[in-house]
Amino acid sequence: MSEHNSDIVHPPTKDCITRLKREFQEISKNPIENILVTPSPSNILEWHYVILGASNTPYEGGVYYGQLIFKYNYPLSPPSILMTTPSGRFETQKRLCLSISDYHPESWSPSWSTSSILLGLLSFMSDNEVTAGSIVTTNDEKRILATKSMDFNKKNKTFCELFPYLAMDE
């Protein structure tokens, strides 16, 4: 289990498991452009995502890996959102302060889904708003990190296990 999951003592509720399984089926049927996502094989509360840097952005060509850590009672509570790969936009392995994250449970809506969370994260990544967990860098610094992102990710065992088709050498 992830060290970031504060609900280790609480197994996920039946509703939580049902909802997360349904959301994964939906994402599998209707993938999100520039985002890959999969639950951990050993923990339904821990999802792993990859954001593929969009063309004509400082992130172009980058591969950004991170985690969504759901609470045992999701969708009643929002997940933690973490970024593992240095992007020049977010601190690594720090909870991100977004209205769709556990930083702001008061603004969370149970109608939001994993897809909407990931789309919100992608949108926020392209923005320059400063918040807890974000950092300020130049576009040139972001471009340099984009070129180094895959080498960084290949050193991460979990990334390589969950996204082997990305981790393979070309």
Please characterize this protein's 3D structure.
There is one protein chain. The protein is an alpha+beta fold and 170 residues long. The protein has a single domain (14-163), classed as Ubiquitin Conjugating Enzyme. 32% of the residues lie in helices and 16% in strands. The protein is built from 5 helices and 4 strands. The protein has helices spanning 14-29, 114-126, 139-154, 157-162, 164-167; strands spanning 35-40, 43-52, 63-69, 80-83. Strands 1-2-3-4 form a 4-stranded antiparallel β-sheet. Strand 1 (35-40) and strand 2 (43-52) form a beta hairpin. The longest helix is centred in the N-terminal third of the chain and has 16 residues, at 14-29. The protein is globular. The N and C termini lie far apart (32 Å). The model is unreliable at 1-7 (pLDDT under 50). It comes from Dictyostelium discoideum.
Furnish the topology, listing elements before pairings.
Layout (H helix, E strand, L loop, with lengths): L13 H16 L5 E6 L2 E10 L10 E7 L10 E4 L30 H13 L12 H16 L2 H6 L1 H4 L3
Antiparallel strand pairs: 1-2, 2-3, 3-4
Function: Catalyzes the covalent attachment of ubiquitin to other proteins.
Keywords: ATP-binding, Nucleotide-binding, Transferase, Ubl conjugation pathway
EC number: 2.3.2.23
Features:
170 residues; alpha+beta; Ubiquitin Conjugating Enzyme; four-stranded antiparallel β-sheet; 5 helices; disordered N terminus; ubl conjugation pathway; UBQ-conjugat_E2_core; ubiquitin conjugating enzyme activity; UBQ-conjugating_enzyme/RWD
